[in-house]
Amino acid sequence: MVESRYMYKRKKISILYVIATFVTGCAFYRAMPIDNSAVNLALKDPSMEKVRVQAKLIRHPVLKSIDFDDRDGISPDEAAILAVLTNPVLRAIRDRKNISMAQLIQAGILPNPQLDVLTAGNTLGTIDAFGLGLNWDFISLISRKERMDAALSHVDAVDIDVAWQEWQVAQAAKLHVYRLLWIEQQVKLARAAVKGLRENLEVVKKAVKFGVLTAVDIAAAETTLQQIRILQLKLVQEQKREQIALNQTLGLPAGRAVLIQQNIALPSWPALPSASQITEGLEERRLDLLALKKGYESQEAKVMAAVLSQFPKIKIGFTQGGNLSSPITTGFAITLDLPFFDRNQGQIALEKATRNQLFDEYMARIFEARSEINRILRDMDLVKQQIAATEKFIAEFKKLVQFYYTALQVGNADILVYYNTKNNLITKRIEYVKLEQELSDLGISLEIAAGEYFPGFETSLKGHSEKSDSTEVLE
Questions:
Q1: What are the alphabetically sorted keywords of the record (predicted)?
Q2: Alpha-carbon distances, residue 87 vs 69, 97, 165, 168, 474 (angstroms)
Q3: 394-to-378, 423, 427, 431, 432 alpha-carbon distances in Å
Q4: Domain annotation covers residue 359
Q5: Is the distance from CB of 323 to CB of 128 less than 8 angstroms?
């Protein structure tokens, strides 16, 4: 009878263990190998049909949903949204959200109760005895709220930081599109100049045959043509590099051609708010600063949790024991740690030091952001001054080239001086567009630094079209 009673107790415990296993919902292992099929699936070309749907549903603190249509080429805003949806680097960054959510779940889980079972078999001169104890770490309840608060703030910090990373990638895609448009204008100017100089060279060669000009004239014309031709090739190379950079930002293969919309108003940033206006409310607007602040709040809660956890650990339990020859005893048991050595002082010091670091990092980031805004505004002002000066220079140089051209017709000018002046004019025209491109780059940088858009683009390149009087030919 004693044997059957002991076996019954063991069977009951086994059944309870099985039930507990199913109730807790244990996870199962699933392999996730990295092989060629996994790589090809992860890096396959994005579906534009899927992008068109997602672009209308996007939710972001700064970016707005748009009607995406790449069939007529992508605009800067469409490139920004496409990059956010398809950039593979952002996929890895977004996985941090799942990690933070897992940490939130872990922070809210209470420790399992502990079950102690003691049995003794009947040997000579003894009888069966048993003991049963159930206890639980009560102290975990004290810091649970603070742990949950820390985990929740961390989730918010990660979400905002991911949005900040998305915003930067979006702006990078936008920047590359504008750069391609600016470089295209430079290539057009160089191409038109090369075409005009090539026609001019043919005219000079014919003039040499008739004895009107000499070999020196041919050499001067060929030298100028080759100089501008080399400049054109450099611009084409820069254009290809920028195209590769755009594809990388968009998560597209390097060799895939991306059609850019034409007739887009290029940014010239005619007027901007002052530095004080832009920096006002910066810490409530820039996503990275908001993420740092949430991270600081999370750390503040961790400090509080560490302080609360310095109290001695308390375990409260239920016990039951006895044997078949004596009455069964039942009671409560309390286990209390004596805080002679470990009062959680190490963890408290660590959390406080981390909090101080985050505080100083937050202040340093604000200082850096304000300084960056002032620097960009100063650089934009200088570039605008250079643009205005270059525009005046081009206007005067056009007159000078025309003067030398007229003087050459009557033999009152040196052919080398004329071609040097002509070469300088072509170079200045391209330099003018480069300055406009630099201003455009600085404008995008200002938007990133300020954490907001600055609308009000104006079409630039006025008076610097593909047709130019820099292509006059000697007759």
A1: Membrane, Transmembrane, Transmembrane helix
A2: 18, 17, 11, 12, 53
A3: 24, 12, 10, 10, 9
A4: yes
A5: yes
Centre a 10 Å sphere on the Cβ of residue 413 and count the other Cβ atoms it contains. 16
Strands 129-137, 114-120: pairing is: antiparallel
11 assigned to some structural domain: no
d(CA 143, CA 440): 52
Q: Give the 3-state secondary structure of residue 427.
A: helix
What domain range includes position 171?
31-109+142-309+344-471
User: Is there a contact between 460 and 268 (Cβ–Cβ < 8 Å)?
Assistant: yes
Provide the whole-model pTM: 0.79
DSSP lists the bridge partners of residue 130 as: 119, 322
Q: Is residue 327 part of a domain?
A: no
For the beta carbon of residue 110, count every other beta carbon within 10 angstroms: 10
If we measure between CA atoms, which residue out of 72, 71, 90, 78 comes closest to residue 54?
78
18 domain residue, yes or no: no
Please state, in angstroms and rounded to a whole number, the distance separating the CA atoms of residues 350 and 305. 12
Rounded to whole angstroms, what are the CA distances from 444 to 177, 438, 450? 12, 10, 10
Inter-residue contact 249 to 173 (CB < 8 Å): yes
Tokens, residue 283: 């810490």
Count up the domains in the chain and report the number. 1
Q: CATH number of the domain that 385 lies in? A: 1.20.1600.10
pLDDT band at 6 (very low <50, low <70, confident <90, very high): very low
Residues 441, 450: Cα–Cα separation, whole Å: 14
- Of the listed ranges 50-64, 132-146, 358-372, 377-391, the one predicted with least confidence: 132-146
